[in-house]
Input
Amino acid sequence: MMYAKSKADILIASITADIHISKGAYRPHVPQDLRALNLAAFEMIDYVVIDPNATPLENIHIIKPTCSPRIRIHSRRTAGENR
Output
């Protein structure tokens, strides 16, 4: 995050909405509001977006960032697929 902030005047962090998060039976679920609050607590983050879309592509199109140091798009794996 510090690297990203060093490359931009405004740092916007985006998180995936709960509706698109699927956890295993014994994996902890951290609600989207709590995840957003945790990110907002970082001094270098100016805004946090809870993205209602499955991927960040629509927000990237709307926000039109001048710099995207790292964009990770996770795809759902089928059962039994190796990581």
